[in-house]
Amino acid sequence: MTNVAFPSIDDYDDIDTRNYYKTMIEQGASPEEALAESRSISRDNARTPMQWNDSPNGGFSEHTPWLGVNPNYKLINAESQMNDDCSVFRFYQNLIALRKKHPVMAHGDFKLCCPEDGPIIAYTRSYQDETWLAVHNFSASMQKFHYGAEDIELPCNTPIIVSNYGENEVEYGIGTLVLKPYETVVFQLH
């Protein structure tokens, strides 16, 4: 589920959101600016009814809920996620299965392979005779991870354990991995 973008401040129930909106208006912001900023900080983003399916009220209730359902419930809902092999739901199921099957995901040594403040988080996990490299791009833009500086080798046949874009989409060459927005790739180094 995503943060809700109700069309009016009157649709928000959170008193802090309403007060923030009022303060912004008093400070000279336009209603559109105040609403956009208020949306981003609203606690109602975590309070909208669960979007179970694409039926009225997102399948949450046959009655009108205390807070409006996010208007995107027709596209983003639990039922559609369960029926989509490429969904976030299926990706997390896959990660849970991997964690249960491969102790390296939860045990052993952890080594950070990137600056601590960048949009990329990269690290190795090593357990017994197995080492995995996990690289995550936490930005909305393409990023490059220079793994050669970290003494990591990624030959073109390095097994990919999981990728949220799909194995065939992963772009890497000598010393550099190109990551799409919000891409995650996990390699099996040995």
Quaternary state of this entry equals: single chain
State the low-pLDDT regions, or none.
Answer: none
Structural class: alpha+beta
Molecular shape? elongated
Helix content: 10-25%
Radius of gyration: 22 Å
Number of strands: 8
How far apart, in Å, are the first and last alpha carbons?
Answer: 36 Å
How much of the sequence lies in strands comes to 15-25%
Question: What's the main sheet like?
Answer: 5 strands, antiparallel
What number is the mean pLDDT? Answer: 92
Briefly note the CATH topology name of the largest domain: Immunoglobulin-like
How many domain units? 2
Order of helices and strands: HHHHEEEEEEEE
If strands are numbered along the chain, what order do they take across the biggest sheet? 1-2-3-8-5
Helix count, DSSP H or I runs of 4 or more residues: 4
CATH superfamily of the largest domain: Golgi alpha-mannosidase II
